[in-house]
Amino acid sequence: MAKILAVDDEAKIRTIIKEYAEFEGYEVAEAADGMEAVEMVKNDDFDIIIMDIMMPRLDGYSACKEIQKIKKIPVIMLSARGEEYDKLFGFEIGIDDYMVKPFSPKELMARVRAVLNRAKASHTTEDIIKYQGLEINFTAREVKIDGEKVSMTPKEYDLLFYLVRNMNIALSREKLLEEVWGFDFYGDDRTIDTHIKMLRNSLGPYRNLIVTLRGMGYKFEKIQ
């Protein structure tokens, strides 16, 4: 049974999340603000976190950054603000999905399933791919360049692993949004392009392995 941490300063929101999640068979713990969420993560294990952004004491973005220092846990962010900047900022700091309030509880549960399935899939692949000084370890969810571990956001890992698993296959931006971001993500081409730019910067000397297909999308060139 997957365990969810619902973090929101509104008790009504936490109650709705808990009711629907428990109906789906999940175990749910609650936190009323980011500070409480960080402390709970230190003392317990969670499979996924549903986190509001605007909260007292410690906002969702800051809490997410602190949690990442402790454990790698998928995060779905909730916000009353739906501007693209807010979404992209969230993805840049490592969240897995973003929903705008008011939201459909059923859609939220669908997104929870999608994120958990991706997280599970990332831990069942046993391949290690090496190319010169680049090493991609799917099992450990690690990327190394010349023996040094590369620090990436969770979404960069997801995007790279999907590109590599579909090596030498042309992938449209729409396909990448569907497969990497999951259920009914409300984004556009700039979301993909922003993350590709971040990923290339992380890969440094191997950035050219990700090839731009003008007017279409991207592909990861086959490693010989």
Automatic annotation (TrEMBL):
Highest taxon in the source lineage: Bacteria
GO cellular component labels: cytosol; protein-DNA complex
GO molecular function: phosphorelay response regulator activity; transcription cis-regulatory region binding
Keywords: DNA-binding, Phosphoprotein, Transcription, Transcription regulation, Two-component regulatory system
One Pfam family per UniProt: Trans_reg_C
Sites bearing 4-aspartylphosphate, chain numbering: 52
Keyword field contains Membrane: no
OmpR/PhoB-type domain segment(s): 126-222
Descriptive protein name: Stage 0 sporulation protein A homolog
DNA-binding region(s) in UniProt: 126-222
Role this protein plays: May play the central regulatory role in sporulation. It may be an element of the effector pathway responsible for the activation of sporulation genes in response to nutritional stress. Spo0A may act in concert with spo0H (a sigma factor) to control the expression of some genes that are critical to the sporulation process.
Listed GO biological process terms: regulation of DNA-templated transcription
Domain Response regulatory: 3-116
Organism: Ruminococcus albus SY3
